Amino acid sequence: MTSKNTARESGQFHLAGTTAVTRLGYGTLQLTGPGGWGYPKDPDKSMRVLRRAVDLGVNLIDTADSYGPEVAENLIREALYPYAENLVIATKAGFTRPGPKRWVPVGLPEYLRQQAEMSLRRLNVDCISLFQLHRVDPRVPLEVQVGTLKELQDEGKIRHIGLSEVDIQQLKRAQRIARIDSVQNLYNLGNRVADPLVDYTERAGIGFIPWHPLATGALAGHDSPLSAMAKKRNVAPSQIALAWLLQRSSTMLPIPGTSSISHLDENVAASEISLTNSELQILNGVRVY
Ligand SMILES: NC(=O)c1ccc[n+]([C@@H]2O[C@H](COP(=O)([O-])OP(=O)(O)OC[C@H]3O[C@@H](n4cnc5c(N)ncnc54)[C@H](OP(=O)(O)O)[C@@H]3O)[C@@H](O)[C@H]2O)c1
């Protein structure tokens, strides 16, 4: 049963050893219109979901300038401003949006800087808690892109720097330019390509934020390959998928996305589940795509 502060049961992680976040966070992509484009049909409902996440103790909210674009950040401000002191809004820049479902990387320094300024304004904050490079633009040297984020950090406009969709070599190159406090890559029980990166970030004390933690729903719901185990435990399949992530690495910070309060409640309640060794062994064999 979810109640106030349930998310705290997932434990805390400190970005750079300083900024505390609940290990179970929330991702805002599902709050926009279809294909990550425009406003949802019912923006009030999206705002209720955001407020509920905070009520449940979630204090890591993942978003991006490109969700909507602008929509997710606007909804966060409208729903949650003035922000609780401990709220960590993690936004991103580095994608342009020519249309629904279309994401084109642009890592030019002027663009990243402009987008940081726009996110500061939209979120109505003086400093962005965690600013993530959404994609490394292959046309711009990685060092230039990370260097721009480092400049923004030195100017006090962003507190922590994160990367998204990088490999270990790229992360190491970035670490020569700036302190990297989080990495956000595709990772879930059914897609473990990033396993070596998960291990690397855990050893380095870097937060690992798995996107598509529920495999966009394939691991949740009745058709999930986790249904049998979930039924035995009288929990939801999504909770098994999230509990597995939380146990996979001490620096794992899942950000399940949902547009539904009941799914949010269900997902946050995964904080309270502890899987046994034999369950973990069974789960290691699951593949969904
Ligand atoms: N860095 C990147 O490149 C990148 C890429 C993609 C996403 N992200 C971030 O990662 C977050 C998570 O990814 P995601 O939202 O795309 O995928 P996800 O969390 O793997 O899955 C979301 C999907 O699962 C459904 N769902 C959620 N909880 C459920 C439950 N308890 N029971 C049944 N269905 C459930 C949602 O539908 P309902 O709305 O109906 O609940 C939605 O369709 C995003 O919100 C975004 O913040 C980052």
TrEMBL record:
CDD domains: AKR_AKR13B1. Residues 23-285 form the NADP-dependent oxidoreductase domain. GO terms for cellular component: cytoplasm. The keyword Plastid does not apply. It comes from the Bacteria. Keywords: Oxidoreductase. The keyword RNA-binding does not apply. SUPFAM superfamilies: NAD(P)-linked oxidoreductase (SSF51430). InterPro entries: AKR, Aldo-Keto_reductase, NAD(P)_OxRdtase_dom_sf, NADP_OxRdtase_dom. GO terms for molecular function: oxidoreductase activity. This is Oxidoreductase.
